[in-house]
Design brief:
alpha/beta; two-stranded antiparallel ribbon
Length: 219
């Protein structure tokens, strides 16, 4: 599989820097309260989305889609922020890891976190709890626009996650966001280098325009 250049660019930047770039462009891409089930988890990839809802009678499925998701994708599940039943567990984790899926992001909760930590398979969610979603939750729609922590995620958008959380780079703006983030990262590195060389922090920040790095400019 050919490398996706913009996914690689996103992976080289941390979410804090990408968040500042999103702010500069006036884009809401930060997924509020979505975090890794382990602080070491890190990922980037393009979103394969689905929306879930309360189970019907008889109930629909919660996981039979997994073999259709391309390697390198990030499974993005909108479960409406539900925290009383899971939507992801050990069977899905094992298969996703074996198939080379990049990560899972859930607006809701997961379970069986011990396995994802053992395998190093990144799961990002609002939390974890053991109560099954079987007969409580079902998949309603695949490859649709979803809401993850207050951020709009469309199929194919770039997802980036690390110890600080998860964000989305909308496809229509990904080049502009990445360009801005790389500029911000370079400026902050110049500030750190100047301070290592003996410059005062306030002077370094003035010289490299730190206080305007995140100022909204529009695209």
């Amino acid at each position: 599989m050919a490398e996706d250049r913009n996914v690689a660019r996103a992976l080289a930047l941390d979410t804090a820097t990408l968040s500042d770039a999103l702010d500069r462009l006036g884009i809401v891409g930060q997924c509020y309260r979505i975090s890794g089930r382990d602080p070491s988890f890190e990922m980037a990839g393009r979103a394969y989305t689905m929306r879930c809802g309360p189970a019907a009678n008889p109930p629909g499925t919660v996981g039979d889609y997994i073999d259709d998701i391309p390697a390198g994708s990030v499974v993005v599940i909108d479960n409406g922020g539900r925290e009383d039943a899971t939507i992801w567990g050990d069977i899905l984790t094992e298969i996703a890891h074996r198939r080379g899926i990049a990560a899972t992001v859930i607006d809701g909760i997961s379970r069986d976190v011990a396995l994802c930590r053992t395998l190093g398979y990144p799961v990002f969610s609002k939390g974890h709890w053991m109560r099954t979603g079987k007969d409580r939750v079902q998949v309603e729609q695949m490859e649709c626009v979803v809401n993850i922590g207050g951020a709009r995620v469309a199929p194919g958008d770039i997802m980036r996650g690390d110890a600080d959380g998860v964000l989305v780079l909308p496809q229509a703006h990904e080049d502009a966001v990445l360009d801005a983030a790389e500029e911000i990262s370079a400026a902050e590195e110049r500030i750190r280098a100047a301070c290592r060389g003996g410059m005062r922090l306030d002077e370094a920040r003035r010289q490299f325009k730190y206080h305007s790095l995140q100022t909204r400019r529009g695209e």
